[in-house]
Amino acid sequence: MAVRTKLVAGNWKMNGLREDGVALARALVHRMVAAGAGGPGCELLVCPPATLLTTVGGLIAGSGIALGGQDCHAAAKGAFTGDISPEMLADVGCTHVILGHSERRHGHGEDDTAVHGKILGAWRAGLTAILCVGETRAQREAGTAVDIVASQLAGSMPSQAEPDNLVVAYEPVWAIGTGLTATLEDIAAMHAAIRTRLPAQTRILYGGSVNPQNAASILGLGEVDGALVGGASLDGESFWTIARNCPSPQPPPRERGEGGPLGASAMRHPTGARTRAPKGAGG
Ligand code: PEP
After folding, report:
1. Neighbouring residues of 62: CB distance < 8 A, sequence distance ≥ 6
2. Is 171 in the pocket of ligand 1 (CB under 6 A)?
3. Which pLDDT score, from 0 to 100, does residue 275 have?
4. pLDDT tens string 259-280
5. Number of H helices, E strands in the chain
6. pTM for the full model?
7. Hey, whose CA ends up nearest to atom 6 of ligand 1?
């Protein structure tokens, strides 16, 4: 069984003018360079607003930090005013796209069928989809959280899902941007429940008010393969500190000795193989 390298993804949401995006990207690249070959010990992904993709993509190109979109349309092109196609994201260097975020599901009425179509579109363009699922506060209090998440997965995850084309992010809606986090027990239980519904080795991130203070305990949970970070990803030092709190990947005992604590598969930057420099972007 291969090691699941942790992934820490920053969702900048609708934040940042060009000078903010440039400063944040430069701060992260600076830390990557200073950290050397191992980087922070996990994969890093930033998902800036669409207006900053090209600028940020140019700054992070070659740094080992991957670029992602925050949403996309299912179609490759057409009369969809205001939308962005997966192909357009790939064209500017994105390797990932966040889909089904609760702010899209609740603020824009996106249902599981729409998210399913967007994931297929993302795959058509060669992007890895980060599928967000999560229950509301009322659903958690009603004891239906696992059923809700299971139903979101069943409705939105295409059958061709594989570990290298899909990442799932469990984000309790009530924990996003509120400063509240699920208990470690609830996170572990939900991730275990999600794990039984995914292809083996698919990564499951936790999202919901992850910050430098709580990152170590959350990222230390066995079934947590990283974090989707909103507010704290807007500050270079906070985002970096969260990433630095990822425990080193530990291969299963029978595979130890095949390459040290950070073996060849862990050191390889799985996003790197698929990372594209934006066309025309400098290093
Ligand atoms: C998010 O936007 O996916 C998120 C988890 O936000 P925050 O970290 O601010 O709760």
Report:
1. 277, 283
2. yes
3. 39
4. 332 222 222 333 333 334 444 3
5. 12, 8
6. 0.89
7. 230
